[in-house]
Every structure is written in structure tokens, then in C-alpha cells.
Amino acid sequence: MKEVEELVQNFRPISLAEMDTVKLMNRVDTKFAFTREELNALLPKLQEHYQILEVDGIRIPTYKSLYFDDDNFSFYKDHHNGKNSRYKVRFRKYVESDLMFLEVKHKFKGRVKKKRIKVDDFEAQLSKQSLNFVHKHVEDLGAVEAKMWNVYRRITLVNLELEERLTLDINLQFNWKEEVKKFDDLVIAEIKQEKVNRNSPFFSVMKNMGIRPYRLSKYCIGTIELYSQKKIKYNRFKEKLLKLKKINNNVA
Question: In what residue span(s) does the VTC domain sit (predicted)?
Fold first, then answer.
């Protein structure tokens, strides 16, 4: 971790207020997966093109999320089955900033829309106010309950010229009750754009490093890892999960 901590110091900082101009709450996301070693090689190639989000002197803050689904894992199954319209419901805490939101992400025909409201704390059961918010933004919502905690650290980069943000997630952990699953060497990158622009410096660097876009969902990874004993269907994700575990174990 020390090397990454040192490398991020070479970027020019940007504040949360300055980054508000690039919120991209309606966007296209492109994801990549690679190793921490590749992250160390990647960061110096990006520093002339991106600024880094810094909050109270912290450049790799901790994110903690609590995800919800119904008894049948409908949100997960919609993703697994490739449904064009699918949702995620979660609380997200920006730990060092002590900021929290209840969020609904809706992916429809490749675009992602995110709605959120500020909240005071995690809720094991959704309050009336939270339920009203979720019902407003999720079609045909049934009874949902907390299913999974997800914790990771995130580097957020903002392009100096293009309207795009890049997030790099490390130290991923999924847990529920006594079950804990860790992906310490896996990096999940996500470039967020108004529309896909492959002239982005990040796309160019990924191509030069031989790393191709990779569709994946942290929620789906965690669901499979934590609930496989319940015979969660994941045949469409088996190859993806195998690749992610190979990356995490640094196996070619």
C-alpha cells in the first residue's frame, strides 16, 4: 500500500466543491480489472492528464456500503440475466468525511442514472422516509432487506480537459454476519463519461498495457461470494469470477 500512497502524491489536487462540476449523475460507465502491481505502473502515466480528489488531506478515502435486495435477490438476478433495466439500492458512507447517502442506481440500456438523498446513519431496515425515496425511483419494488456490507478504498481522478471521472478501487472486502471475503490485490477501475470517448488518456493507457474493458459489478461479486451456499445462480458470471480471483492471486 505504501507505494500507491506515495504515487498519488504526484497528482495535482482538486477539492470536492471543484469536482461538483463533473458529477455525471447520468452517464456511461466502463470498467476494468487489474492487479495492484499494474496500478503502480498505471498511476505515473496518468498524472499529467488528471487531478486527484483530496478531502481534508486524504487522497485514498474509505467507502462503506450496505446493499439491499429482496428474498429472491431480484436486483442481482436482473444483472445476471442481462436485463436492460436494473437497479441497485444501497447506503454509502464516505468514512473520513462522515457523509452518508441513500442511493438508487438505475442502469437502462447502458446508461447509469443515480439518485441519492443525504441520511444520518445506516439503516438495517429502511425507514418510512427511505422507503418513500426508494419507491419513487424503483419500479415494482417488493420488500427489500440488507444483504451485504462492502468496504474499499478509492482513488478518484478528474480529467483536466474532458468531462470524465476515473475511480480506482482497492482493498475490496465483502461481508455479512461472520462471513468475510477479501480481494486485496484486485483493482477495479471505472471511467465515468457523458458518452463513451475512447480518446480518453485512460483508455489509451489501458490499451497500451493490454488491459481490456471488463463488465462486472461489485454487488454481484459479493453476492456470489457470500451466498453461494444458497445456490445463487451465477453460471453467466463463472468465467468472470475465475478471472477476478486469478487477478487477485496474481496468477497469469
Answer: 26-224
Query: Residue 69: CA atoms inside 13 Å, Cβ hemisphere, count?
Result: 21
Q: What pLDDT is recorded for position 21?
A: 67
Beta strands in the chain (DSSP E): 12-14, 26-35, 50-53, 62-69, 85-94, 99-108, 111-118, 145-159, 164-176, 179-183, 186-193
Domain at 2-248, CATH homologous superfamily:
Hypothetical Protein Pfu-838710-001 (2.40.320.10)
Q: Does the pLDDT of residue 17 top 90, yes or no?
A: no
Instruction: Give the CB-side neighbour count of residue 179, counting CA atoms within 13 A.
Output: 14
pLDDT of residue 42: 97
- Burial category of 127 from C-beta neighbours within 10 Å (exposed 0-12, middle 13-18, buried 19 and up): exposed
* Amino acid, single-letter form, for residue 164: E
Identify residue 234 by its one-letter amino acid code: Y
